[in-house]
Amino acid sequence: MAEEIAVEEEQKIEMVADHGPNATEREATFIIRDEDHTIGGPLRYMLHKNPATDFAGYTIPHPSQPKMELRIQTTRGSAAGVFQESLDRLHEVGEHILHTFIATMDEFESQPDLMADD
C-alpha cells in the first residue's frame, strides 16, 4: 500500500502584518507567489494613484524564488483595503484594454482587404 503524503498548498497572496508597539492596519507586506515585474510594476503604479497610499514598493527577493514582496503604507484606511482597491482598478484597466483591442480587431477584420490584388 502506498503511503500518502500531505502536500500543503501555499496561498497565492499572503499578508504579513507588522508587529510591534506602533504597528497599525495601515501598513503591511504582501507576499504574492508566482508573480514578477509583469504585475509588480502596474500594481505599484495603481497603488501610487490611490490618494490613500503613503508608500508602495515591491521587490523580487531572488530570481530563484517565485515570489514578490509588496510593501504598502497608507495615510487612511487599511493597507489591505487599499491593496484590494488597486487590484480592482488594475483589473478594470485590463478589461478596458481587452475590450478595446477586440473591438479594434473586429473593425479591422470587417474592412475590405486592402492588400488584395485586383
Structure report:
The protein has 118 residues and is of the alpha+beta class. Helix content is 38%, strand content 23%. The chain is built from 2 helices and 4 strands; from the N terminus they run ββαββα. It has helices at 37-49, 79-110; strands spanning 13-17, 27-33, 53-59, 67-74. Helix 1 crosses helix 2 (79-110). The model has no long low-confidence stretch (mean pLDDT 88).
Summarize the helices and strands and which ones pair or pack.
Blueprint: E1 13-17, E2 27-33, H1 37-49, E3 53-59, E4 67-74, H2 79-110
Antiparallel strand pairs: 1-2, 2-4, 3-4
Rg over C-alpha atoms, rounded to the nearest angstrom = 21 Å
Tally of DSSP helical segments: 2
What's the shape? elongated
Compute the separation of the termini in Å.
73 Å
- Relative helix content: 25-40%
pLDDT under 50 segments (min length 5)?
none
Class from helix and strand fractions: alpha+beta
List the defining traits of the structure above.
four-stranded antiparallel sheet, 23% strand, 2 helices, alpha+beta, 118 residues
What is this structure, in a nutshell?
With 118 residues, the chain is an alpha+beta fold. Helices cover 38% and strands 23% of the residues. It has a four-stranded antiparallel beta sheet, with helices on one face.
